[in-house]
Specification:
It contains 4 helices and no strands. By secondary structure, the protein is mostly helical.
Length: 105
């Protein structure tokens, strides 16, 4: 489940957001942590991460296909989407989150 959410989110970073994506996934990718830590992420990057996470969830819910092209069964899609939605609720509760941001990106 973690990989589906992580890679689905990563897929929705835009080319011009590469530096932000690298910062968000740095500890996971380069320090081999088992989780994503956004504690040190600038509010602008945080909001880009939230937008990518929301876009990833929307795509996964509509297609049932993971970022690496695996089709999931409906019951699995619903279960993962439920967890993903809970994560997004937590991101929205973070004081760095600004609804509608990042504007124009």
């Amino acid at each position: 489940m973690f990989d589906v959410i992580t890679e689905g989110t990563r897929k929705h970073f835009r080319t011009e957001e590469a530096a932000c994506a690298r910062h968000c996934f740095l500890k996971l990718d380069e320090l081999f942590q088992q989780y994503i830590s956004l504690d040190e992420v600038h509010p602008g990057c945080f909001n880009i991460f939230v937008r990518a996470c929301e876009s990833g969830l929307a795509e996964y819910q509509s297609t049932g296909v993971t970022a690496w092209g695996v089709q999931h069964e409906d019951h699995r899609v619903h279960r993962i989407a439920r967890e993903w939605s809970e994560l997004i609720k937590k991101l929205h509760a973070d004081p760095r989150y600004i609804a509608g941001e990042p504007a124009g990106t």
